[in-house]
Amino acid sequence: MFEDFDAKYDDFCWFEITSEHSKAVFEKQAKMEIWASCPLYACKDKLKAIAKSERQDDVLFFDGEKYYVIHLAWNDGCKDGPRYEELLPNELNGYLEWYYLNV
């Protein structure tokens, strides 16, 4: 998934989550932090963990249509839900480039 970025940057900060256990941990935590008042609530059960940032507790999820970069707080959440970015598939590479250069 990140081959182009890995080739371009020696220290690219995202890695693909390959362990089913790790995916389950991130997905469970996201569901815990997304309350009914959060805009992500409607898709929370569809979120699949794809990748993790090495710089922050940001995890890339996919719901079958859109990508979401969700900043996990590792707590029970809050009424507004976690901080996140919603991305269409054609926006993902641009966002990841921006994230690498700015975060």
Summary keywords:
30% helix, alpha+beta, 103 residues, 3 helices
Descriptive report:
This protein is an alpha+beta fold. The protein has helices at residues 3-8, 20-33, 92-102, and strands at residues 14-16, 48-53, 58-62, 67-71, 83-87. The chain has a five-stranded antiparallel sheet, sandwiched between helices. The longest helix has 14 residues, at 20-33. The protein is globular, with a radius of gyration of 13 Å. The mean pLDDT is 93.
Secondary-structure blueprint:
Elements: H1 3-8, E1 14-16, H2 20-33, E2 48-53, E3 58-62, E4 67-71, E5 83-87, H3 92-102
Antiparallel strand pairs: 1-2, 2-3, 3-4, 4-5
Parts with pLDDT < 50 across at least 5 consecutive residues: none
The biggest sheet, with number of strands, parallel, antiparallel or mixed sense and barrel status, is: 5 strands, antiparallel
* Widest sheet: strand ordering: 1-2-3-4-5
Beta-strand fraction estimate: 15-25%
First-residue to last-residue Cα separation: 20 Å
The helix fraction, in percent, is 25-40%
How many β-strand stretches? 5
Radius of gyration: 13 Å
Name the average pLDDT: 93
Shape: globular
Number of helices: 3
Helix-strand category: alpha+beta
